[in-house]
Design brief:
188 residues; mainly beta; four-stranded antiparallel β-sheet; globular
Amino acid sequence: LRASYPRAWVMPGGKVFGVSAERMWSLDPAGNGSLTVQGVFKGAPSSSATNPLNVGATNGAVMFDIGKVLIAGGNGSYNGEGWPASRLATVIDMNSGTPVLTEQAPMANPRRYSNALVLPDGKVLMTGGTRRGNNNGADAVYAAEIWNPETGAWSTAANAAMYRGYHSTSALLPNGTVLSAGGGTPGP
């Protein structure tokens, strides 16, 4: 559907909801495998530095609550473009069966190729990324940010010691700490 790296989650009722590039869609796994377009998620990525959208295959996205997804950062479709990153954050609520989009406060840092994960307290941690394109860390974002779903506000957290961008990962460990690893082309 539209671009690489679709984001997809199982929603209440068992359907799969996804966002690919600027399209939202759903799939009923009990059906014949056909997709239903659920509408446009904002618009296409843009090379414009004026308020880039949090769309495309370069954003961070995570389901933080039942039927609710946070999509933040991004503004790009593929690795080779040098476009500016987005600071925008949007919640998509699928609990009614139809996507309801609610804009959140923007992040302090624009990010492409960041990682999002849900912390044990229900907040969302964004790590890594780059302010523009994928230039192997020349525009790296080191500061992590935490989004609070109760308030919609972001707070700045610890800095990473190393650039984490394209193909990096963050994982919540059993003791509650977060591992941030990998990334870059060709490294680190």
